[in-house]
Amino acid sequence: MGYIIFSAICPWIAYSLRDWRLLCVITSVPLAAIPIFGKFVPESASWLLTRGRQKEAIALLKTVARVNGNDYPEEYGDSCEKSSEENTDATALDLFKTLRLRTNSLVLALTWFVVYCCYHTNTQNASNLGTNVYDSFTYSSLVEIPSLFIILFGVDWLGRRWPIVLSSLVAGIAGLVILIIPKDATNTYLGLALIQRVTITIVYNVIMQYSAELLPTVLRGRGLAFLRVMGTLGLYLSPSIVYLSMTMPGLPLVITGVLMIFISTITVILPETLHKHLPHSIEDGENFGRNQSILDCPCLNKRSVEEEVESPYKLS
């Protein structure tokens, strides 16, 4: 929400300053506080266990229990001490060593690349929507608010996979419809661009949580770093796509539409993570989702979480 509010305010700060250097300074200064907040963010207990740091994991879990006003079950300590220390030497290359894990990693990498590219293409294309650039950028920022509410309720009902598949499909259709609307239909063009912004934002946010859940704990940090690099590469491509508006005003949104339909078709093969025991080891990651079908949906399929892979790091 903070990102959306500042994005909506930013064009008016730029309008007031009329100096891009001063704008860069003002918008960059708050970033200096990030290292300070990092000291107050605890490490993941699951990650500590997979690295063989059981004592630190137990201390962290005791702190969590104390802060939440709960008693720490001592049997959890025994479970931690007995946890296997295998895969502590895992590297990013392990993402591609087994078939299912390799498939999931490649699909996620393509999704991050395309979604980052399409999101920033839509953002940078605000100046080509046929209205005042300050108004266009503000509107395109504020329409992300509905996407947050859709995410809040949608991911607990439809899961992670289907919001990505359906939102990508809608974004793609919105982009392709631009091909058949009259050139002077400015309001229709703006509306389709905003619909695409909402749906791409849904995918942009859900894929971050989905990736963290789908990657095994021992590879999560390295895997997310790899995916972030892929997303950044896609971001670098977006200015070139926006420049194509010189040839045809709606072409950037048409291209993002085609790309989002592609994402809709490939992400459908990924396993669902809602209400499942998430993978911790590489073996868990390879076996995760084997008993799921492409058509599985949490709102229709009420299978118990016990049907999914059991992890040696589960504290119960």
TrEMBL record:
Membrane topology value: Multi-pass membrane protein
Record bears the keyword Membrane: yes
GO molecular function: transmembrane transporter activity
Top-level taxon of origin: Eukaryota
Membrane spanning stretches: 105-122, 137-155, 162-182, 188-212, 224-244, 250-270
One Pfam family cited in the UniProt record for this chain: Sugar_tr
Keyword Transmembrane among record annotations: yes
InterPro entries given in the database record: MFS_sugar_transport-like (IPR005828), MFS_trans_sf (IPR036259), Sugar_transporter_CS (IPR005829)
Keyword list, A-Z: Membrane, Transmembrane, Transmembrane helix
GO cellular component: membrane
Annotated protein name in UniProt: Solute carrier family 22 member 1
Source species: Parasteatoda tepidariorum
